[in-house]
Amino acid sequence: MKPIGLHSIVLLLFSIPVLATTRLDLDRDWQFRTDPRGSGEASGWHNQVPADTESVSLPHTWNIGKHDNYLGKAWYFRTFEMPLQSPGQHMELHFGATFYSARVWLNGVAVGKHEGGYTAYSFEVTSLLRPTNYLAVEIDNRVTEQTIPGFAMRQQSPPDLWYDWWDYGGIVRDVWLTLGGPLQIQRQQIKTQIGPAGATVEDRVFLSNGSKQSKLISLRVTAFEPDNRPAASQRRSVTLPPKDAELAISLKLTAPKLWGVDHPNVYRMTVEVADENGKVLDEQSDAFGIRKIEIRERHLLVNGEQVRLTGLARHEESLSEGLAETPGTMRYDYDDMKSLQATLTRPVHYPQNPFILDYADRHGILLIPEIPLWQFSESQLSDPRVIALAKQQMREMIEQSGNHPSIFAWSLCNESDTGTPGGIAYFRAMRDFVRKLDPDRFVSYADDHLPKLERAEDSAANDADFLMMNQYFGSWHGPASELSASLDKIDRMFPNKMVIISEFGLHGIFAKDGEDPDQMRVKIIQEQMPELARRDWIAGAILWCYQDYKSRRNLRPGLEEGFVEHGVVDEYRQRKPSYYVWKEMNAPATLTVHWNKENSEIPASFTATVKPNSLNNLPSYPLHDYRLVWNIYDDTKLLNHGERRFTDLNGAQIVSGQVKSGADSHKLQLHLTLLRPTGDLASEKILDWNPSGQQARQPDPTLPAR
């Protein structure tokens, strides 16, 4: 499916009948207006644009600038031309996400509504289109105790306590039309299984036949290698009845390239539907990966190898864009998180932008996506409306994201009353619902109450596939000294459960007057990471969080809005000392190096040791196909360089190199860089030389790289 602008529609529709689905972007030329009295519909805004609107482009949130604190209804308006409609044409209107609830009108007719702020949805609009069209969308960013996210009722008081991030109302992701024929591919569900002779790929293809009669079609499914070469293909002829249908096709791949943390091999599955004459009616392409993720004896295994992973959570938010993030913002932050050695993240409390899922696929970051039930009470978790809405949001997230190889588990809530009968019933019902949709992935939730339990049976954690523990010893949960005993208690209570620390860190409000909160955060990281590492049943740890984020709660006294001081970077992306501490502690290997002076004044060589982390460390994972690159400089002059490749970096490896003649002993410098197979930086070290001695150090981040 290729996107085109609306200016191309006239040519497209006049030239040939539309068969394969085409995407028509609608992100530009919108008008916007708030509706504080909620009178927009009564005033006829769904029929014509009111006065006093603002021009905006999508994605857009109104909660930046003059409408920063606005809660309530607001409207978006757009007109567009659609000169011709071919017989049998099928049109759908798509929204990438709207926060929170939306109602949509096209040419004055109510098309539909949607609740939930982070997943995509669409409407069939073929019969409503005219040569000139008027689209109106009403958004309401207010929440209640029955919405998701909603009021954090677990806290009991006050009754309308807000959740812990900002309420960015708006059309926060793209809007587009799809134009195609009556027969369309709706989606694919791709599953893989690794065997001794290769891999089997099962593809369930969901189709819709909008015509009133059965249709003979040819369905061709082709899997493409990560380098885009065809790997396997199969064609079937079937008679497709009217309405919806599912078809299953199996492909065999010999010598598959497996997806993993350091080898994020992404395949592509293309589905093509043609009529009996071979004319293509529709086509669709989806990414997938081939990997086996297991929990065995309380350990996490990827493709048969034990891994212990780390990373950071990140809110979808920036100062200039809020929740309506563009690819450049997301890429910048995730590139930075990858430089912090991220291999695992939750990633936050709500379904993620497709860009982030694609990034994780292609950069080897395991994900545990979640729906935004945040600190819900037992009464909320028992509410049939909440349960129905939770199922809707889980279904949307799984159907839209389920082919991503980076996703290995789903999370059903965060810090809610799961230690109550109603909470246990909620988790069991949702777990069973998720397993019907996606039986191959694990199901859990983030729990901050585990150390307070007396029996495993008193919590929904007992029914989870693994435990996710939010622990804030040193702040919210008590003295830092109590962490060790709490972990031991959880070990005894859940002797067969793997654990991932789904949140830890320190909020700046716990710093006393005059104290530097980030220095306290550094201490938490330096003291607690080794404590977690020495328990091999803890398979991962996720720091909360990457950046300071906007909120109405958890602020310093007297503030009604502001930024939660929880990140290793602030809201401007300025790095704090904890950033560099986290980066160094999460490298997958350590580098040590010294000069060999021998008999001359100037060193003749160097010796470096590359030591991969063992399974007693956190993080730890097998290092295959790494490279150590070294460069020796005399001031700015490159004297010598070299490279050592490691097929399997199993133990400490010694690397040495020579200093060529002509060096100035006052300016000698060695750069060591350990690179992943993807080319990403795994670790680095700089060794300086001067007549008084030598000094190994980390590179100065404020200086440009050589």
List the helices and strands and how they pair.
Layout: E1 3-4, H1 9-15, E2 22-25, E3 30-35, E4 54-56, E5 73-81, E6 90-95, E7 98-99, E8 101-106, E9 109-115, E10 121-124, E11 132-140, E12 170-171, E13 175-180, E14 183-195, E15 198-209, E16 215-224, E17 230-240, E18 243-253, E19 267-274, E20 280-288, E21 293-296, E22 299-302, E23 305-307, E24 309-312, H2 327-339, E25 344-345, H3 354-363, E26 366-367, H4 378-381, H5 384-401, E27 409-414, H6 421-437, E28 442-447, E29 467-470, H7 483-493, E30 499-504, H8 517-533, E31 538-543, E32 549-551, E33 562-564, H9 577-585, E34 589-596, E35 605-612, E36 624-634, E37 637-648, E38 653-658, E39 668-675, E40 681-690, E41 693-697
Parallel strand pairs: 1-2, 24-31, 25-26, 27-28, 28-29, 29-30, 30-31
Antiparallel strand pairs: 2-13, 3-4, 3-5, 5-11, 6-10, 6-13, 7-12, 8-9, 8-11, 14-15, 15-18, 16-17, 16-19, 19-20, 21-22, 22-23, 32-33, 34-35, 35-38, 36-37, 36-39, 39-40, 40-41
Helix pairs in contact: 2-3, 5-6, 8-9
